[in-house]
Amino acid sequence: MSLVTLAACGGTTNNTTIETSPNANGVFPANGFQGDTIRVEISGDATDWADGVTVDMGTGVTVSNVTVSSPTTLFADVAIDGTAMPGQNDVTVTDASGGSDGALTLTKAFEIDSPVTLTFEGDLNQGGLPFFTIQDLDFLHPFDATQDANTGAFVNETITSPDGVDLEVSAISTNQITGRAFIDATATGGDATLASTSGSNSITVDLGTLTVAARTPTPLATGSDTAGSVTEPGDTTLYSLSITKAAVLDLADLSSTDPNAQPAFGLLPDGTWATAASFPSLQLAAGSFDLVVGDLATEGKYDFNVNVSELDVTVSAEGDDTKNNTLAATDTTVPAANIPAAIAPMTLSSDTDVDFIKLTNVPKGKTIHVSTLDGPDAFTDTQVDIEDSTGASLNGGDIDGGETDGDDGGFTCAFEGVCGEDVSTTDVTAAAGTFFVKVSPGADFATTDSQYVVVITLE
User: Fold this and answer.
1) What is the spatial distance between Cα 57 and Cα 81, in angstroms, rounded to a whole number?
2) What are the tens digits of pLDDT across the range 16-30?
């Protein structure tokens, strides 16, 4: 306990003794980011700190290497956990020897800040597809944009999101991560974290709690027009769709009032984006589905019109897959009388395999329309050609939409990985006869995903 003696004014000889209580009076720096390790200085007034003093800075903060430089000044290393709760913590300095200073507390003296902000453009609701931005506020820990040379995936920044929510990254710079969120129609939300694993900058930080709003799908009838609207960029409309038997669901009409918009479908057979399909989509059994209409661009505030047709199909299995690779050795034959037809599944057994489907008795004046779809493997990449009996192409040769474009469109193509194809003969067939559908591996084919579905219609 320190004593201060003062001389009384007025020339008197009386002395007055004022007692000053020790206290902690400052922390510098007074804040730190989640995941950081920093050196702090704590100052006191009328203190008598000595070796053995301890410091507590609250939950989520580890204090080490406490050094006393003077009776009123000490330094300490402070490690802030990446998931520590943001906010103001009390700082307590305790004399380990039980001295007269005891435990001194500075209330709300050290603030824990998040080094990132997470914002969304578009509704964070069930079945949603909002855009997201993660902004880096801690310039000592920039984001790492390193990508895998083969897949293009970002390898040093990993986002962990709650069940039913997938934050899919599209671009990374030193201070920003952008992408799109895929929210299942059954998602309820939860906590999300960002792990940065780039050498000495490795940290894991809390992105906060994602609160997903519930919404009830609007029933959508097949074969009739339904009007809707996109209120803001990143918004979606959630519909429910029911079919009574095996069918192909096809996009009959999806148009918008904004020429810059790119409206698109996503069909969620079990309410999740992991099984999302684009259109056309073969459904092998009756059932109810969630249907999302959104936009592939960043446009907003426009009206759209949607119409989904339900097409009855004849479903069959692939024939003898060992007889393929030439027109003459066609392994599967489909008479025109059985079209619309679906062969489910078919298999590309290697990266040199070619499947031919023979179409017989095709009437004059018909256009042959072929789609390859996911199933049962999610990412089988194909290319498609439609040929006459001499092997001449009717649509300009093999068509491979790749991963991000092509004729098929839809959410599966644009967002979820490798596309199927959607191919039609360029001209109406001049005469009745026999034609062939040729399916071969696309540029991104891998034997890990080799099964697919073919849907054939005559229009």
Assistant:
1) 12
2) 555 678 888 999 999
